[in-house]
Amino acid sequence: MFHSELMNAHAQNLTKERLREFEHLRAARQARAQERARRREERGRARRARSADEEKRKGRFGRAA
């Protein structure tokens, strides 16, 4: 193998390794984003449930019983 062929093979290996690392990072970021979205939805759902409960307790005169 010539020196230039070795350099090209090394560069290709580094490129493949960087691509794998990038794919792993992207998957990790996506998983974190999905987890944040799930938690945000759960908080919103809980907030809406609390708001509905408060409305039920307020009753006719507009204040908590």
Estimate the global geometry from the Cα principal axes. rod-shaped
Instruction: Work out the oligomeric state of the chains in this entry.
Output: single chain
Number of helices: 1
* SSE string: H
Number of strands: 0
Give the percentage of residues in beta strands.
under 5%
How helical, in percent, are the residues? over 70%
Can you tell me the residue ranges where pLDDT is under 50 for at least 5 consecutive residues? none
Set down the secondary structure blueprint.
Blueprint: H1 3-58
Write structural notes for this entry.
The structure is a single chain. The protein has 65 residues and is mostly helical. 86% of the residues lie in helices and 0% in strands. It has 1 helix and no strands. It has one helix at 3-58. The longest helix has 56 residues, at 3-58. It is rod-shaped and about 90 Å long. The termini are far apart.
